Amino acid sequence: MHYGTIKNCDIANGIGVRVSLFVSGCNNHCKNCFQPETWDFSYGQPFTKETEEQLLLLLQPAHITGLTLLGGEPFEPENQRALLPFVRRVRRQLPQKNIWAFSGFTLEELLSPDCRAHCEATLPLLALIDVLVDGRYDEALKDISLHFRGSSNQRILDVKKSLEKKEATLLE
User: Fold this and answer.
1) Which of 4, 51, 62, 105 is the most exposed, having the fewest neighbouring CB atoms within 10 Å of its CB?
2) pLDDT in tens, the chain (172 residues)
3) What angle do CA 15, 60, 160 make, to 5 degrees?
4) Could you tell me the CA-to-CA distances from 61 to 1, 19, 52, 123 in Å, in that order?
5) Residue 93, class by beta-carbon neighbours within 10 Å (0-12 exposed, 13-18 middle, 19+ buried)?
6) 165: helix, coil or strand?
7) Residue (of 135, 133, 141, 123) closest to 170 by Cα position
């Protein structure tokens, strides 16, 4: 997996001050995507053990609320497979931090074995995530007044409650 950017003081992609990892690679190709350069799976730099260590260090300060995964598309199968061991480390080493992920796929799509994004890493990865902002950006539904979303079709989901209830549950 490659990544395009790491932001170590991000307040735009989740509640609180966050460390954000923008992964590379996306096959959704949403019209007028704000980062089309991240569609390329080779964009940016390789995600290495050194990258993981850097992210874990950036996450340690008390003022950092958590980690955000976005891109690109974190739920492209090859990205999920690379992210899963790292997110497990974050959970193990920094259990007080929350984890957000942004995806062009809806939760229902990710849970469906018929979806191209669904793979062996999907359920374990979702189980480690607290909040999922889901759905493709739709320029016709663009709304700049929305927090953490670009278009009104996108949802901010409480993943744990969604998985428990077996239905998408909005974050309160």
Assistant:
1) 62
2) 999 999 999 999 999 999 999 999 999 988 777 788 989 999 999 999 999 999 999 999 999 999 999 999 999 999 999 999 999 999 999 999 999 999 999 999 999 999 999 999 999 999 999 999 999 999 899 999 999 998 999 999 999 999 999 999 999 8
3) 45
4) 26, 11, 16, 29
5) exposed
6) helix
7) 133
Q: How far is CA 163 from the centre of its chain?
A: 17
Q: Are 82 and 35 in contact (CB under 8 A)?
A: no
What single string gives the DSSP state of each residue in 72-127? S-TTSHHHHHHHHHHHHHHHHH-TTSEEEEEESS-HHHHH-TTSTT--TTHHHHHH
pLDDT at position 52 is 98
Residue entry with tokens 């390789």:
46
Residue 97 near residue 67, CB atoms below 8 Å: yes
